[in-house]
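BACKBONE GEOMETRY TOKENS:
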Amino acid sequence: MTMIRFSAAGVRVRVDDDLRTLLHPTSLDLTERRVSVIGANGSGKSTLLRLVNGLTLPTTGSVSVDGVDTHSRGADVRRLVGFVFTDPLAQLVMPTGLEDVMLSLRRTGIRARDRRRAALDHIAAFGLGGHSEQSIYDLSGGQRQLMALASVLATAPRVLVLDEPTTLLDLTNRERFRRVLNGLHQQILFSTHDLELALDAERTLVVNSGTIAFDGAPADAVRFYRELAVTGTPS
């Protein structure tokens, strides 16, 4: 399994004349197949995830994926790590899913004349064959999120990072998306407010005020987070 390593990685940003800490120096080795990240809005979850593929660079320490450093070899890291945003409309940049997947396939070495067929086959594998040439704005929320996932996975990344991927989905589409995720072979790191979804992981991190407040078994992490949310001081 891939090794995601945070070596005292922290993130600070300047707001006006002040330095604001988004994530305190954090050291983690993540090798599990499924890792979930939970915590309140603004706790630092998204910052943690964005460090993994270089969308955010650490201001202290380092982050690497299988020894590839996000700061010095960002392009190589992004070939290893795919990132799915909360809102698929922030990710799908082409008018149709077919065009978006074909754009992704340009990075894989597939010849231009073969990309359309490869993209159609890839989209069909996600149950979206009948929607490949439909405007992304005419797709349902669940279809959009699956299309965004299909586009990211077209490049066959080793690691898949998802930032609250089911937030905009209803129950039916959430369960459909969940089944698709459970069937993937990639190492997956995801943040979520859905505590049931968090339990699908092998390991769960609780992020609170820019620190890893808990790191362990999903059921224990969810229990810790519930107590933290209610009392502010888990037992």
The two ends are 33 Å apart (CA to CA).
